[in-house]
Each structure stands twice: as C-alpha cells, then as structure tokens.
Design goal:
single chain; 132 residues; Alpha-Beta Plaits; 6-stranded antiparallel sheet; elongated
C-alpha cells in the first residue's frame, strides 16, 4: 500500500538509500536466467538418438542453441545440440523471435523438461532460457 494514493509511491528510508548509493547494497536485476520459450524439439525422428538420449539428464543437461540462417527450409532455423550432436530444431512455428534475438547478439540455451520415446520419435520438451 502506498503512502501517496496519487502517485503509488512509498516512502523510502534515507539510510537505505545511502547504503544503495554508496555501493554497500547491490541489486542484481536477474538472479536467474529468463525462461523465454517452452517447446518440443522438431525433427528428432530423422536422427539416430538412442545412444545419446541416455546421457541427457532432465533439468540438468544444458543444450546449446545455434542459428542456422542458411537453412534451405527455414531462414529462422535454430538448431538444438547436445555435446555437439544435433538433436533437431526449435519448431518453425516458434523460432522466429529467438532467431532474431540471436542474430542481434543475445545468447540462449535450453534444458530438457521431459523426454520420452514415442516410436522412433524422441519427444524432448525444452525450456529455452535467455542468458543473463
């Protein structure tokens, strides 16, 4: 609840302001990397992933995302890699924003939220994070 209903601002302790301005207290805007996208990995059924799948740990293994701007099927292609092995791509329906941000110099990585085999398809559910 604010002290001034017209501004929505609260009073701040002058001693706290002095500590902040003097550098004794610092604030980190992003304590954790930002979750940017939740998605599956497209194209896993076209690759032989049986050996590497056992090495991918849910919520632990970090996957690399790599732009592939010269991809003949999708100019916004973002490849998903684990230990330099291609797992597939961020689906075309979800990759444009991530691709454009990567092209502008932003870095992303992914973690596997869930995985299961559905026939020849390794269904990987990803959480894509913007690096701080």
């Amino acid at each position: 609840m604010s002290d001034n209903p017209n501004t929505g601002l609260s009073k701040t302790d002058p001693a706290l302001l002095k500590l902040i301005s003097g550098g004794q207290i610092t604030f980190k805007a992003f304590e954790e990397d930002i979750l940017a996208l939740e998605s599956i990995v497209a194209g896993t059924s076209y690759l032989n992933l049986h050996d590497i799948e056992t090495q991918i740990e849910i919520k632990i293994s970090e996957l690399m995302l790599q732009r592939e701007p010269d991809n003949e099927f999708d100019r916004f292609a973002v490849k998903v890699l684990f230990k330099d092995q291609k797992l597939g791509y961020i689906p075309k329906s979800k990759n444009q924003t991530i691709a454009r941000l990567m092209d502008a110099g932003k870095q992303f990585y992914a973690k596997v939220a869930a995985k299961e085999w559905e026939g020849p398809w390794l269904k990987l559910q990803l959480e894509v994070y913007l690096k701080d």
